[in-house]
Amino acid sequence: MLQRPSVEHHRTAVTVFSIALLGIALSGCVSAEERRYADANTCQSFGAPYGSPAYTNCMLEQQRRRDNEELESLERTRLTTEIARDAQIMADRARRERCHRDPDRRECRR
């Protein structure tokens, strides 16, 4: 028979999730100058000389790529949050229904 996870298990999961989000956020902490330097190296490695139209287009493409990655990351975070919220709503609803059927359940005593 499945048992309901303990409060301690829930706290551990929340802590792990929080640490993971913090790690993801900190991994994005690169200065604008470092990004520009990396982009310039990328464009030069593609053979676009500094100041040329190809170099400018390459730099714009690098920025566009980075912007798209950030938008995708924000969308994934939004979806994850929505899924977690929906799961909590469903769990609360199931608990209320179980307590309504059997008020003497241990989880219903508060």
Fold topology:
Elements: H1 7-27, H2 32-45, H3 53-101
Q: Any overview of this molecule?
A:
This protein is mostly helical and 110 residues long. The protein has one domain. The protein has helices at 7-27, 32-45, 53-101. It is rod-shaped, with a radius of gyration of 24 Å. The mean pLDDT is 85.
Give the fraction of residues assigned to helices: over 70%
Ranges where pLDDT stays below 50 over 5 or more residues in a row are none
How much strand? under 5%
Oligomeric state of the chains present here: single chain
Classification by helices and strands: mainly alpha
Instruction: Summarize model confidence as the mean pLDDT.
Output: 85
- Form type: rod-shaped
Helix run count: 3
- What's the order of the H and E elements? HHH
Quantity of strands, as a count: 0
- Please outline the major beta sheet: none
Radius of gyration: 24 Å
Provide the domain count. Answer: 1
Distance, first to last CA: 24 Å
